[in-house]
Write a structure and sequence with these properties.
32% helix, homodimer, 3 helices, 5 strands, 136 residues, HIT family, subunit A, five-stranded antiparallel beta sheet
């Protein structure tokens, strides 16, 4: 039996979209980029290589599923994927759609400026697109 | 038969350490952080999800092998893993050892300041440690 408690900072900075096999799929409360976050529901894991081999394979599968869906719904020039965890140590994987000329392009999005909240409508539209793209 | 040509910028910015099953393992010519780069030897691939499922699994395996080795040889506080590709589109995965108080901690390393070259000795020591850690 695995227990799981979401980190407080992740809870504050992101909204839950759906549950995948291993991960919670969440979106960052920042409208500057289409920005999803996968959180494997395993306690006390900070590095991908600390997951079991099965969980590592599951994470790869879910990561690529979500990255591909995000590319399709946004038409992004590039998908950025990162597992950093320098601030929030609970393992989480960022998946971000990038466009030429977007905020801080071609630099990274982490630690850049202040989050710009979504409007209720824009958040709802983005959430629905993600759900539709993953509803296979 | 897969052909593969390394991107010019990757060739200029990194040195080859060894060949794994799928990837070339290379190190960034920047001594500010212990910084490795995996380059899957597949042509015309820019996103992880464009790899075949087998190659995706191989990449995950090699990524976690290298990340775990890098953690062991450096004693890093955190390993950062990222596939961005906003500048160099050829698929490559960064694996970086981070320490509290290192350059730009806890921010990301990409796009930060100017590279600081290794001395010949320091590069040789780091390369040998990586090779020993992966020689299983």
């Amino acid at each position: 039996m695995h227990t799981f408690t979401l980190d407080d900072r992740l809870r504050r900075d992101t909204d839950r979209i759906m549950q995948l096999g291993l991960c919670q799929l969440r979106m960052m409360r920042d409208s500057r980029w289409p920005w999803l976050v996968l959180v494997p529901q395993r306690d006390a894991i900070t590095e991908v290589f600390d997951l079991t081999p099965l969980d590592q394979a599951m994470l790869t599968f879910e990561q690529n599923l979500v990255a591909s869906a995000l590319k399709n719904i946004t038409g992004a020039a590039k998908i950025n994927i990162g597992a950093l965890g320098n601030i929030v140590s609970q393992l989480h994987v960022h998946i971000i759609a990038r466009f030429e000329g977007d905020t801080n392009w071609p630099g990274p999005i982490w630690g850049h400026g202040e989050a710009v909240p979504y409007s209720v409508e824009a958040k709802d539209i983005f959430t629905r697109k993600v759900l539709e793209a993953l509803d296979t």
